[in-house]
Request: fold
Amino acid sequence: MAGTTETMGTGLPRGFRSAEQGWPELHRIPHPPRRLPLLGDVLGADRHRPLQDSMRFARELGPVFRRRAFGKEFVFVWGSRFVADLADESRFAKHVGLGVANLRPLAGDGLFTAYNHEPNWQLAHDVLAPGFGREAMEGYHGMMLAVTGRLTDHWDRQLAAGRTVDVPGDMTRLTLETIARTGFGHDFGSFERERPHPFVTAMVGTLSYAQQLNSVPGPLAPLLLRAAARRNAADMAYLNRTVDGLVAARRRSGGGEGDLLDRMLATAHPETGERLSAENVRKQVITFLVAGHETTSGALSFALYHLARHPEIAARARAEVDRVWGDTERPAYDRIAKLRYVRRVLDESLRLWPTAPAFAREARQDTVLAGEHPMRRGAWAMVLTPMLHREPEVWGEDAERFDPDRFTAPAVRARPPHVFKPFGTGARACIGRQFALHEATLVLGLLLRRYDLSADPGYRLTVAERLTLMPEGLRLRLERRPRRPEARTPGGADTRLHRTGATPPS
Ligand code: HEM
Reply:
């Protein structure tokens, strides 16, 4: 769908095409039974948890359903047969819709929010993709270890003071510092602050605002959201100022160590010789600072929640870390992917709560979805990933149960393709997937080995939504594990991670 950077003041992107126009047989798609005139399907809805509302409707209405809001219809899809069809890149593509489109004023034609037809998508993709290749990742590894060392220093201090730890808050500190350091040579000093860095507060503000725009009835939006819109403008201005400062410092210094920012500023497209414009660099820096930490922070937080809830799974994961890493506190790059079980814990966490929980797909041409529902060119649907990941026919009747062994190689091979999509699909799937998985596996390995983790028995999982998902209010109690007597690596000296402080190893 073509569009501009603005919304119409109604929360809907300009040029928005509703399902009435795009789905000629919309009447065949079920909707919630009790609809209110003007407002649509809002009965029982929780404005702060639209995704979990949609999950509830999905359970009632089946694999393809619709909801009405702002006087417009929206189609949601989660049945694996339909999602597999939407993954066909020859007939469907990413749709920049709703929440994602609402981020356009901030992230413009940056990689995540670019419309498919915008030339800066391909240019930035080609220039930045090598920044996520193996060689680049190896370069980030030492910095990821160093940032994790800052986290464990912080957790050791909390432990010594007899305090529990704030999991989402600290995972956000960790992942923000990691992307800032590896991507932009920048240090936000998150672990030295009591409260979240203002960058995080402003980011959460804009993400929440983008989500809010989706849930306020169209004609009333400008009125109801006046104060929120003012705050959002201030948040955006702060984010832009931060990024401009960071870029200006790099230009003054004459270049970094070949990180993402260097690529953005200096690398020409290998074929066309074209470079990113200054305005586009600003959009990309914001995009990577936000996309590069918020979702990984949630993924780590959910994984820690499950590990704390399932001591037998934690014990198995820890035994793997001990076996594969020995006692080296600075595991080498190629030791991370060897933590197969820890990786399964992560996959299983992302199955139940994929932290970027929906993505939208649009028809490139007139077509029929899975042979059942006609769609006109430009018509689109929202894929509800957490429901796709719970489909009983694929995952079994016990799909709600946390079981990392769903991700053993034979179990994965036995399932059809396109049933596990935490990183989206096709050409516009997540560029940072390997980065996130490497970082999260490394962090879980180090934390498991250092601490026993337990949740407050009274804690009930509540999932907070701000376009992304996060376990709300999760705190863990830590106990330091005794070091094993043979404090040697399988092949080298034992250097203590937490003593390396913030200095990245070369
Ligand atoms: C567990 C962590 C992560 C999850 C669950 C996740 C999920 C996703 C999903 C679902 C999409 C596709 C969205 C759509 O189709 O509209 C996406 C795209 C993207 N992600 Fe991630 N992501 C994660 C980590 C990262 C990291 C670490 C980075 C950067 C360092 C990153 C950067 C991006 C970018 C730039 C895009 C847009 C790609 C494009 O359209 O070309 N993500 N991510």
Observations:
- Residues 94, 100, 111-112, 125, 179, 287-288, 291-292, 295-296, 299, 354-356, 359, 422-424, 428-432, 435-436 surround protoporphyrin IX containing FE (CB under 6 Å).
- Residues 1-9, 486-506 have pLDDT under 50 and may be disordered.
- Residues 226-253 form the longest helix (28 residues).
- Residues 326 and 489 are 5 Å apart (CA to CA).
